[in-house]
UniProtKB/TrEMBL annotation, chain A:
The chain crosses the membrane at residues 21-41, 47-76. Keywords: Membrane, Transmembrane, Transmembrane helix. InterPro entries: Na_symporter_ssu. Residues 12-85 form the Sodium symporter small subunit domain. It comes from the Bacteria. The keyword Kinase does not apply. The keyword Membrane applies. This is DUF4212 domain-containing protein. It holds the Pfam family DUF4212.
Automatic annotation (TrEMBL), chain B:
It comes from Gracilibacillus dipsosauri. GO terms for biological process: carboxylic acid transport. GO terms for cellular component: plasma membrane. This is Cation acetate symporter. The lineage of its organism: Bacteria, Bacillati, Bacillota, Bacilli, Bacillales. The chain crosses the membrane at residues 6-25, 46-69, 75-95, 116-134, 146-168, 180-200, 243-265, 277-298, 370-398, 419-436, 442-463, 475-494, 514-532. It is found in: Membrane.
Amino acid sequence: MNQKKQLNERQKWYWKKNIRFIISLLVVWAAVAYGGGILFAKPLSNIQLFGVSFSFWIAHQGAIIVFFLLILTYAIRMDRLDREYAKLLKEDREG
Amino acid sequence: MSVEAITITLVVITFIIYTGIGWWSRVKDTSSFYVAGQNVPTVANGAAIAADWMSAASFISMAGLVAFLGYDGTIYLMGWTGGYVLLALLLAPYLRKFGKFTVPDFIGDRFYSSSARAVAAIATIFISLTYISGQMRGVGIVFSRYLQVDIIVGVLIGMAVVGFFALLGGMKGVTWTQAVQYFVIIIAFLIPACAISAQLTGNPVPQLSFITSDIVERLSQIQIDLGMTEYMAPFTNLSMLNVFMMTLALMAGTAGLPHVIVRFYTVKSVRAARWSAVWAIIFIGLLYLTAPAVGAFAKYNLIDTIADKPVEEVQDIEWVKKWETTGLLQFDDKNGDGNVNYTAGDDNEVMIDGDIIVLSTPEIANLAPFIIALVAAGGLAAALSTASGLLITMTSAVSHDIYYRIFNKSASEAQRLRVGRITLLIALLVAAYVGINPPGFAGEVVALAFGLGAASLFPVILLGIFDKRMNKEGAIAGILTGLVFTLFMIGTILSESIFGTEGALIDSFFGINAQGVGVVGMLLNFIVSFIVSRMTTEPPQEIQELIEDVRAPEIDEDVS
């Protein structure tokens, strides 16, 4: 019984961390795509990036690069979290 | 050899490869037939997702759509890529952990209800069917444009090829042909893009020359001079509200398209599901970072070649001649001054179909006939790969979810496989029929499929994973609200082209157009399912355990 309780604790910890990752990445997702690309498109179009305006670049290319980075970050961080979780379980088992 | 001969040769070679893969991957069990035995390697699945996802529209039409929408073309560029963030973070890992065959499988089990399963299966069939008509049509159009074959014959040839590898290999055959088709698609898209970039800017990397060169700025200036809207300025073609809503509808719709979701079931672990999303966005991003450059470059080149030039001189250009005969490019010297007036007003004398942006680029850039043939093969690969993914998804909704899980729970493995293949054959015939006789509102079909995906399946799956208290009453009420509202709004806003009414019954939903209204349906789905679920009993204990299990980390051989 005690062991089961400990496992539940571990899973709760894992889920909490997962949710925190997801929320922070989705905040960036929304800020770049809907903030930079749409809501603040007008003010940001005064900033120049080489031959195009900054907001135009975000809307046509930059956001896609950010999407890739977000998905990559999540995959890497979840790999790390999985390893930490496995290590904790192993410690629990060995006492 | 003539362009036609090279095109035929190349198309035949790719078709032999696709059918060969089908023969090599023929399957004998339902797990292989529906989810490719759940052992597709991560990178291959990423390529398969990309090909599954990138339809005839992405390949042939999108760069043109962006070229004519300017800044506002971001609805497609961000809208058709941003959904992968939602899929990778919110849906894919958990659905893989759940580990069955289909989307209705998850909804039916999670909401412990045959009604929920049936509603999800019907939504799946409806979304996939609307989408597949455009793909089969795309196959016919590529055949007719490049090989002067009748559209109907083109559709039938496409049907035969898809039918062969999908019937034999099921999801396994579909997966491996899609992975190969991705590389045909991307090579066919990149070579002309690099060539036109080198020709206009001296830099052969279109993704970079798009920002480092001054083409976009010059295009902006020319458009202002011709009295059109400024290319680089936001919200000149669509309101900010609509750009926002349409982008969100396409993103959430992506995450709610069953044929995309189901691809994440085919890998061997949760970790592999996360990493195949990484590969998918790399493969998709490669085309989507290039498309805005192709759009801007080809449009600049087109205007530069024809605007204010003598009509006779323009009509003498080789590629202008060719595309004039297809009707994609038309001139009408209204004022009889002998010059081509290209403007935004009534005195405009040029009609340009957006599809010409991608289709004519190889000729404009003076590329070898081989490249023109390659673009035809790429267009076919894009249409066939998406069609095959949709086909297997429709099939599984009927033969797995409705026949096996609802009507005949004791069906044997061999029976299920046979029913699967028969269903696939019927689905194929239906797909060919709608490809040959497309509904009059073919152009609106995409809005419909994405709007429904966003308003029905996406919210329900999301709540099923993240809201433990969500029960069957809430889910069914939500999914029906989203579906009915979105169907009703799209039907009334687009009534002119769908039902042939005189003018639209309503203009918009408080300023939101048909392509964005799915977002409102999605919000209603969330609100209704939340309220209904809180007023009814909580889900049974074993369902709460199922949710815990779906959320729990997967500790298997590759971690511990």
